[in-house]
Design brief:
This protein has 173 residues and is an alpha/beta fold. Helices cover 59% and strands 17% of the residues.
């Protein structure tokens, strides 16, 4: 069983494509993670600025959560369709963010007894991951199972250029 983390980003798409090349026909769960409205507000510190009155009603939060879950499910379905088209046997799955995205990913991996977790190097929040820490880095640091981290095609090409540059510098010396 493969757990592929998918947020619709280029890196997540590359992760699906690589998983399909490396493990064709494998049973795959495509995971997208969402965060509850009140959790987002609390994490952002918005409650401290004006209290719950500035946040909106509980019904507003429930409506936002329902829309967020539905949007996240659409992303997971898109990822599962992409994975199926690439040759995996895929199904979509969503999970609510728990202690952090990496923790949520590893928790789902344990629940479904995934043999390997596949994810991209960066998701939709490249600057956020720089400031807050990379999810792929956290997953690899805390995983109790195999993890495959796949760079997007653009990032891979950039890195190949760096390796060639380093190799050219070493051969001159």
């Amino acid at each position: 069983m493969i757990l592929v983390c998918y947020d619709g980003s280029t890196d997540a798409q590359s992760a699906i494509d690589s998983a399909a090349r490396l493990m064709p026909g494998a049973e795959t769960t495509v995971l997208s993670v969402w965060e509850a409205y009140l959790d987002t507000i609390a994490r952002s510190g918005a409650m401290g600025a004006g209290g719950f009155g500035m946040v909106g009603s509980l019904e507003d939060g429930e409506a936002v959560d329902a829309a967020c879950r539905e949007s996240t499910l659409e992303i997971a379905r898109d990822g599962a369709e992409r994975a199926t088209a690439a040759g995996l046997v895929a199904r979509p799955h969503i999970a609510s963010r728990q202690a952090g995205v990496a923790f949520t990913i590893l928790s789902v991996a344990a629940d479904i007894e995934a043999d390997v977790v596949v994810l991209g190097t960066r998701g939709r929040g490249g600057v956020k991951s720089y400031l807050l820490g990379s999810v792929s880095h956290e997953v690899t640091q805390h995983a109790d199972r195999a993890v495959l981290v796949v760079p997007s095609a653009g990032l891979a090409e950039h890195r190949r250029g760096w390796v060639r540059h380093v190799d050219d510098s070493a051969s001159v010396a």
